[in-house]
Design goal:
Blueprint (H helix, E strand, L loop, with lengths): L2 H10 L3 E5 L2 E5 L7 H9 L1 H10 L4 H4 L2 H11 L7 E3 L2 E3 L2 H13 L4 H16 L1
Antiparallel strand pairs: 1-2, 3-4
Helix pairs in contact: 5-6, 6-7
Length: 126
């Protein structure tokens, strides 16, 4: 599996790899990294470290497909309604989603923005 594909698969599972010194740290939901994925990460550690250190990822294209659909729905003004999220009530779910996606694309607290997008997706999916 190519490094880029591995990163996309991990992000699709809600997992984000970050670099701490010469270590890779995975942040995401419990159980999202299977033993098979763990082995792939270990096998590609050097390349993953190199790619993550250079910062060569395109955040919006790296969003998992369900979140791409959520952002597209928001951009199409299909989420113009209030919603109750774990952090509280938002008056316009579409505006909230677009704001989170913009902040994610700019690299502002990407872990938080990704989590907020998944929360919005859960509300939208129901």
């Amino acid at each position: 599996m190519v490094t880029h594909e591995l990163l996309r698969e991990l992000e699709g599972r809600g997992v984000r790899l970050v670099v701490q010194g010469d270590r890779l740290v995975a942040r995401g939901p419990a159980g999202a990294i299977t033993p098979d994925l763990s082995e792939k990460i270990k096998a590609q550690k050097a390349e993953l470290l190199r790619q993550l250190k250079k910062g060569g990822r395109a955040p919006l294209s790296a969003l998992p497909e369900p979140l791409v659909r959520l952002v597209a729905a928001a951009a199409g003004d299909h989420l113009n309604r209030p919603a109750f999220l774990p952090g509280g009530m938002v008056s316009n779910l579409g505006s909230y989603v677009l704001a989170c996606a913009a902040l994610y694309a700019c690299g502002r607290e990407p872990d938080r923005q990704l989590a907020d997008l998944w929360n919005a997706h859960a509300v939208w999916a129901h």
